Amino acid sequence: MHAKYLAAYALHGLTGLPDGNDVELLARPDLGIIVILTVRPDEHCVHLDRYTVLATRLVNSRLGRTQEEDIETAILSTQATRNKQGAGVFLIVKSEGDIGEPDFTHRDDHRDFIICENAFSATYFRNQLEAVMNGVLAAVSLSLPQSYSRDITHIGDVTYAIDLTSQKPIYSINIESTTTVSVAGPFDSSMVERIRSDARSFVEETGLAKIGRLLVHSYQRKSDDLEAFIQAWAALEIFVSSLFKHRYEQEWLFKLQIGTPPSAQPDFNRLKDVMKGKYTLGDKFLVIASLLEEIEGEVNTEKFKTIMLLRNKIHTGEITEMGLSVEGVQRLVRKYLRLHLDHCHAR
């Protein structure tokens, strides 16, 4: 069966878009996906809002609760609740494709729609597009001014099909919800091209996908949350280890070799062989920092070592609960992701 998918996220660090127009961030026909920014979520979330209301009514009915509002009034209430969350800009992900044969055992036809239970997978598109969605969200976070919030609320997602005979939308009930509050600022139109370029990098370079996923997931938790700290640290550690191995070790050795006199080349080659596989995580970060940012590389290396020491204390059980500065780790990840992407784009 051919189905469509929509996911919506509130970006709490933004309050508006240039001229109020939708901004396309990513379009991948090969993946059947388009990602946009909008300040008019109601126009895009018609099926999500109806699905949310129908799912809520189904649960309430089974719990014996009274349904006081009709469906259209409940949809308006859902929209009002979303608009009160304080986020003026929403990221909308749309996709479509084949999801296999549906199970219409539990099917209820209404005038304007069809409700089913577990008729088709509610997670198919979500799983297929997770790397893309996280990549785009990570790209947005890199381009925001430092003072802007990176808080993200997953408003919800819906998979639905269209009945070929009646042309009614078919909803297979699945319920998820989440809320949060944050502070925001205006959107700068100069960010758009950078976000688009970064989003392509996160989507097309598999090495960045996991880093982006961990960074984005750390935004979706409390700022002092232990798991958020661990996720942000994991993003930083993978960034350092992976990129050192696949890019910056060779770039570093090449620069050293250029500065080595021909008579000392045998010594350089020996040093290269001796050091192979012996760089510590701190050494790797220092190399990357030195290549990407000469002025503050040493200062940021000390920050990295401080964070790594804290992570080690958590790992050994010396620290289990504390007021963690997750933003400090996230800031370092964003800083060097930004420098890395600019370094790649400059070549």
Strand content: 15-25%
CA gyration radius, whole angstroms: 24 Å
Overall residue-averaged pLDDT value? 82
Q: How far apart lie the N and C ends?
A: 44 Å
Strand order, sheet with most strands: 2-3-4-1-7-8-6-5
Largest sheet: 8 strands, mixed
What is the tally of beta strands? 8
Order of SSEs: EEEHHHEEEHEEHHHHHHH
User: Helix coverage percent of residues?
Assistant: 40-55%
Q: State the low-pLDDT regions, or none.
A: 175-183
Q: Would you tell me the structural class of the helices and strands?
A: alpha+beta
Shape: elongated
How many domains, as an integer? 2
Number of helices: 11
Explained architecture:
The structure is a single chain. The protein has helices at residues 41-44, 46-62, 71-83, 124-143, 191-204, 206-219, 226-258, 265-275, 281-292, 297-315, 326-345, and strands spanning 2-11, 23-28, 33-38, 89-98, 107-109, 114-117, 152-162, 169-173. The chain has 2 domains: 2-197, no CATH class; 226-345, no CATH class. The chain has 11 helices and 8 strands. Helix 5 (191-204) packs across helix 6 and helix 7 (226-258) packs parallel to helix 11. An 8-stranded mixed beta sheet has the order 2-3-4-1-7-8-6-5, with helices on both faces. The protein is α+β, with helices and mostly antiparallel strands and 347 residues long.
